[in-house]
Amino acid sequence: MTRRLAGARGGRRGAVYQQQPLVRFADGTFTRASEGSYYLAPPGGAGSTFIAWASSNVLRYDAIDGSPLALFEGAQTNLCEYSEDLNQASWVKTGASISGTTATAPDGAADCNTVAFTASATDMVMRTVSGTADATTYVTTVFARRTSGTGNVRLRIVGRDGVAATSADLPISTTWSRIEYVVSWGTGATTPEVGVINASGGGAQSVEVWGFDVKSTVTVGSFASSYIRTTVGSATRNADVLTYASLPQVMATGRWRAEIRPQRASTETVNPLSASSMFHVASAAESFIGLTTTSASAFSAGATSFTRTGLTYSRHQAIVLTPDCGVFTMTVAGATAGNGTGAVGTSPGYGTTYLRIGSSYTGARAAFARIGEPYAA
After folding, report:
1. Are 132 and 234 within 8 A, CB to CB?
2. At 321, is the secondary structure helix, strand, or coil?
3. What is the pLDDT of residue 325?
4. What whole-number distance in Å separates Cα of residue 223 and Cα of residue 210?
5. Do residues 369 and 261 touch, judged by C-beta distance below 8 A?
6. pLDDT score of 156 more than 60
7. pTM: predicted TM-score of the whole model, two decimal places
8. Domains parsed from the chain with CATH numbers
9. What is the DSSP string of 76-135?
10. Which of 131, 174, 212, 250 has its CA 20 to 30 A from that of 183?
11. Consecutive H or E run containing 262
12. Residue 304 has pLDDT above 50, yes or no
């Protein structure tokens, strides 16, 4: 099933510039064959609601930094069962206990668990994880906040090799934060485990914990994408894809721009040119505009590329890409390094075109970014 976007969900809501957009997201056909989470606002304190859920085939406008832009992500799976319910017997408590179950969770539900740690640094809450692979790195994340004051907690992994690995102390306060740990789970026959452990220095504290997420980094790199909730078994968030039957002529012949805020930093890379195509204009040959995993920005068609190399940026950094298909230049603004205008190639010779946002037309190159509607520059 597909759904055309309602004007209230698309159109100007993600707009950065005041001009009329070349492409309105509300006019495309959007698909995502699963629910998806997104930020209503930056994380807040006790009782705040900053995570929401979009149903299947509804485009998300994520405002993790207070500026809502359309969120596009590739498919990923959370392998951690009962990601929000630490009361389950499968979550084994060692020293620590669950002292409450009705705190307000980041999505507004009154079902958040509060973990009571004693003064021991070995207090922990752990559970087994199925579906992992040998010699694979996973990123583990969870939302956490102290009920008072500031302090630390750690994330703990027991890998497939049976070796326990513990993160450094991760600072938390009364404002929610999403802490993470990226580590290889090794090779072996041991059933892996994941969980939260008290700070290395110990100390009694009460910590609200919600939303454990364990994802493989094989195809997307070691960064935290949107949270996926689970109950029994794993759960998958499918890819966000927005398609149009045709490409606005100016996108092939003129100058235009789009704001892109990548979920990952330029240091969190995966296979070159394979994971982060933001706009994909398909004709006889594949073409794309995006922040690639080689820290370059590119708009290409056939043998011609619009590119700026040496690009560096942080997670969610606001970057504006301006390709000029009339004189074959690409301008990048807003990055930490690599900004400016560069000349590129010769006429790309577009031919019959159509537009896909969220991944390459084959679906093999998924975007992990928030994107604003493209505008004439």
Report:
1. no
2. strand
3. 77
4. 18
5. yes
6. yes
7. 0.89
8. 78-237 (2.60.120.260), 241-376 (2.60.120)
9. EEE--SSTT-TTSTTSEEES-EEEEEEEPPTTS-S-EEEEEE-S-TT-EEEEE--S--TT
10. 174
11. strand 256-262
12. no
